[in-house]
Amino acid sequence: MSRPRFDTKKVNSELVTLTYGTLVAQMVKDFDNTDDVSKQLERIGYNMGIRLIEDFLSKTGTGRCLDLKDTADKIQSAFRLYLGVQPNVVNWSPAGDEFSFILDSNPLTELVELPDDLKQLKYCNIICGAIRGALEMVQLDVQSWIVQDQLKGDQNTEIRVKFIRRLEDAMPAGEE
Amino acid sequence: MADDILFDLLHSEIVNYTFGNNDKKEKKDEDLSTLEYIGFSTGYRIIERLTKEMPRFKDELDTMKFICTDFWSVIYKKQIDNLRTNHQGVYVLQDNMFRFLSRLSNGKQYLEVAPRYVAFTCGVIRGSLANLSIQCLVTAEVQSLPSCKFHIQVQRT
After folding, report:
1. What is the CATH number of the domain that holds B129?
2. Closest Cα in chain A, distance from residue B124 (Å)
3. Over the stretch B89-144, which tens digit does the pLDDT of each residue have?
4. Which of A17, A43, B26, B102 could form a disulfide with B146 if both were Cys (CB 3.0 to 4.6 A apart)?
5. CB contact A36 to B (< 8 Å)
6. Number of A:B CB contacts under 8 A?
7. d(CA B111, CA B115)
8. Whole-prediction pTM value?
């Protein structure tokens, strides 16, 4: 029996895309409000980011980020590692505390089309959540949101990240 | 091209999500149907993409063999260890190191929650077979982690 072997990488990517798609579809069914769905997606992303950072640090062995530019570069390499895409880092704010990732293709939105009544849905919010969760684990408090979305007819997908503050180690209660 | 770990994490978040809602309603009887349904839709779609350039399967057994070998190894990273059938529409697929259970403790400690981690896969199998025009019931049996048996009962009309 000679059957074509599958391209494992490609299948895995489609598996993630399709599974994510069904999850979103289920959530749309569960919640009346699209904003709630977007919020849930962000939360799921956050939970994944918290764990993903461990995997990222152990796989790449990178050290501390020196500044936000360095952080942006590392998130860029995380995109390459986990989603197989290479986003550009652009649109730095003058103060240097905000930047954007531009994705010309996004594996999560392949095979996806948004119906008209879900145009408000932030389908890729999971990525924003993952960035926030992962950075929180390395003591950076950031905000992340979607500026442009291919699913809504934009040319690219643009994810904006804004640095809020550095999180300080808090002493456990009762310690010196 | 997504990395393997994404699917693992996504799966555990799906489990988390479906049970986050259920916990409030009832604690005793866990409702696995949502989770199974998410698996079903996923399986239904993935099989269509996987088999689009493949020759037609000869018969039911041939389809099952495909599920156990190629399908399983591409999604669960290994083949099914044992396939048994009574040739009357009942198939038992045994995986001794099931992907979603392999990270849980080996003892009896988490046996109670194990169904949560196999329900999605039951759905995936059912969905895949449904799209290959085999209607069936799929249940899972976990006796000791991390091995798992999937019982497939084909519905004949």
Report:
1. 3.30.1380.20
2. 10
3. 899 999 999 999 988 888 888 888 888 899 999 999 999 999 998 999 999 999 88
4. B102
5. no
6. 90
7. 8
8. 0.88
